[in-house]
Design goal:
By secondary structure, the chain is an alpha+beta fold. The protein has helices at residues 2-8, 48-53, 63-73; strands at 18-20, 26-33, 112-116. Strands 1-2-3 form a 3-stranded antiparallel beta sheet. The structure holds zinc ion (ZN).
Length: 150
């Protein structure tokens, strides 16, 4: 995501922008977005340590493990958990640089289209975060649909 920030001159990707790799090569183009376009590019994905910090004493599903399991299912292993593009995650940045987790401004039925600019493996995790309001307050996890087109 740090390379994305440099390429875009912004922390907020918008329709038409190209998401680049850590080698600054275009990977995906944001082709369409029916939401207000609030996506996070600065917050690490949730993981076991994050849920421990939030007071969980037992295992909590998390995006880092979702990534690892998705790759394991196709015989791959992540050398590290990369900085994610957090689609529809609302992390406002204040003038003093502080951040907070806010409810999404997207709504059910919104969709986002990406066009691959290279062959790639992309993993999507429906974030199971239910402690901070980042997925909405009192919101139960719902299904997330995706489609890959040629
Ligand atoms: Zn998550």
């Amino acid at each position: 995501m740090a390379h994305l920030h440099t390429a875009l001159g912004s922390i907020f990707p918008k329709v038409g922008d190209r998401l680049v790799s850590n080698l600054r090569r275009p990977m995906l183009r944001l082709a369409a977005d029916t939401s207000p376009g609030v996506h996070d590019t600065i917050i690490a994905c949730c993981d076991h340590a994050r849920y421990q910090q939030l007071g969980c004493e037992r295992y909590h599903d998390n995006c880092a493990d979702n990534l690892r399991m998705a790759l394991m299912a196709i015989g791959l292993q992540a050398p590290l958990v990369p900085a994610p593009l957090n689609v529809w995650m609302n992390v406002p940045v204040a003038h003093d640089g502080s951040t907070r987790f806010a409810a999404p401004v997207s709504k059910p039925g919104d969709h986002i289209d990406f066009c691959a600019e290279m062959d790639l493996i992309s993993v999507m995790s429906a974030c199971p975060q239910d402690i901070t309001p980042v997925n909405g307050v009192g919101v139960a996890p719902e299904s997330l649909a995706f489609e890959v087109l040629d």
